[in-house]
Amino acid sequence: MRDLAAVIGVTERTVQAIVADLEAAGYVTHTRIGRRNRYTVHENRPFRHPAQDGHLVGPLLDLLAGHKPHESLAQRPPAAEPAHTKP
Fold it and tell me: Which InterPro entries match (predicted)?
């Protein structure tokens, strides 16, 4: 969370609050691995706001990550660590 806070220019506490909100809403889960947490984004979750009714989180994340809109997870080139899963 410290790294993420530095990259986006907010405090670590702000990142913790945002992640906690996302986790409470079911968009993110965490798994404890040793002393660290690994976060997983649930890309098949729909947006909550009525203006985005019917739209899923995954395609927006793909767009932001530079993936092709029609590219499935299986077609993506392997990465050292998945873009949506960070400790």
Answer: WH-like_DNA-bd_sf, WH_DNA-bd_sf
Distance (Å, whole) CA 69 – CA 22:
23
Residue with structure tokens 């590219």?
71
Is residue 74 a contact partner of residue 64, using CB atoms and an 8 Å limit? no
Q: How many CB atoms are closer than 10 A to CB 62?
A: 21
Q: What is this structure's pTM?
A: 0.66
| SS3 assignment, position 3 | helix
Determine the Cα–Cα distance for residues 11 and 19; give it in Å rounded to an integer.
13
pLDDT at residue 33, as a whole number? 93
Q: Output the pLDDT for position 73.
A: 55
SS3 for 19? helix
10 Å Cβ neighbour count for 10? 13
How many Å apart are CA 29 and CA 68, to the nearest integer? 25
Task: List the chain domain ranges.
Answer: 2-75
